[in-house]
């Protein structure tokens, strides 16, 4: 990458140095391209790619016709530099929070570089909430780009209830998040109407752009409606369940997450009667069914829930009768995804380092630069080493290159004064930040002040980028994340407030590993959304260690007046993964294509995709408990295939539970 990066930056510096006069194409070629040992056509293509690279990182390269001379290329400085946004302290907090909502995704990298440029003069603020909103959604970036331009695309899609894959031609309008899943809404050109697509059901690895001509007589009717409202779509996906009450008998020695938000009202011969309030009957019934014969719903007082539990157990039992009829194909080991930073992102980061150092008088400590750009010292040294050769073309402008020592501390950069202030946000940077700010307002427990700051900064950014990226600056957002948690919102609000104010919280917690419910005092550091669940990273005073707690296993969360000093660690760089060891139980499960996106949250070791879109996956569990919970949450659609003794155990457990008459009451 070094030679192309060097040439791209040289093109930038040539145009910046020329100012409003600009440079002709022949001048540019004499400095940068004529010496290349390629054809003229290849040189033209390279020049086009280099201009596109600058444009993609937010540098507006313009072509202007001249009446009496050769046309010129130039950079309009009025459009190059980011205007002074006059950020308030609350807006800076919102800005850092917006970036933290795209952890471990390519979007995070481009936002990180933009954030460093925008807040070079302000202190960094650790985010309280982090989210891996786009992890595993490789198509998200493609669809966002298409929706930004409302450009038609095609992709292969598998509809629920059908085995065949169909080709869909769609004009995307927006992508949205609901129930921790991503959807794309747009105009289906073949069905001539609005349609909603779940991203996990798109079979294509990438989308294919289509020429505008395919729109035909639908050119106007297929445009995103002027009154487009994403909340209307979310309401179609959301079923608002009224609160329900259930009475459930649990054996006295059974620890379950059901207990953490229940009231014990009776004890009898080794059993305890719990009173439970719930909103999601399927989720509640699945949790009860997972306890097999250690739980019984009081049929007289909760007949509908009792029948639902019985049905779930029967479906799981019947799906595990005898040997599995399925043949397991060859499984491929799952390679853990890594963030791969592209050439343009690296160029943007390195130019960002120049801009930030310049804004601090040409000198800045190495540790500060590493912190602002989210890189380690080795990466910084690599960046600075490459930048020694940047600047004006050396053969024609001797001494016009950057002057720096890649190992010095503090970092000093000379001959780079042309980039003395932050340049405009690129479309991905602006879109990522604006989308993140939209998600900030949905964080449970966020204060009115923070909501107002996120909204005001979103307006400022839209106005700032409108001149260079009108599709991004448009008032109708394209990306709509959502961090609400339903039943867990109340707990999340307490933890969010505690993390912001550095207050100790007392929680009751069900530990899946120990099977026990305990009371703990924790110091909440960060809330994190990952794999369809919400977690809180905290210092646990009971164990004197940094721990991760799943929010739906927290029964109560109470603020105390006790304060703490936050642990200064790179929390957001840590991933959420199950704690299993070599003694873990390993199984191969089969998931119907409607439920295959569930498997990712269990961190499969190996997978294979069948011809019908279903998935075989090798999973590891500490015990039967989480495995049974997986099966009862998706009865008949996720089943154990191997080994046979585990299938038999599942059948035995569910068969014994279904043998109990639904009408039985302790």
Task: Summarize the SSE layout with pairings.
Elements: H1 2-18, E1 23-24, H2 25-32, H3 40-56, E2 61-64, E3 72-75, H4 77-80, H5 89-99, H6 106-118, E4 129-131, H7 140-149, E5 153-158, E6 165-178, E7 181-188, E8 193-198, E9 208-209, H8 230-237, E10 244-251, E11 262-268, E12 271-278, H9 281-289, E13 295-297, H10 303-319, E14 332-333, H11 343-359, E15 363-364, H12 366-373, H13 377-387, E16 411-412, H14 427-440, H15 448-465, H16 470-473, E17 479-480, H17 489-501, E18 503-511, E19 516-530, E20 533-540, E21 545-550, E22 554-563, E23 585-591, E24 606-609, E25 615-621, H18 624-633, E26 638-642, H19 644-658
Parallel strand pairs: 4-19, 6-17
Antiparallel strand pairs: 1-3, 2-3, 5-6, 5-9, 6-7, 7-8, 10-12, 10-13, 11-12, 14-24, 15-16, 18-19, 18-22, 19-20, 20-21, 23-25, 23-26, 24-25
Helix pairs in contact: 1-3, 5-14, 5-15, 6-11, 6-14, 9-10, 10-19, 14-15
Search tags:
six-stranded mixed beta sheet, single chain, 19 helices, 666 residues
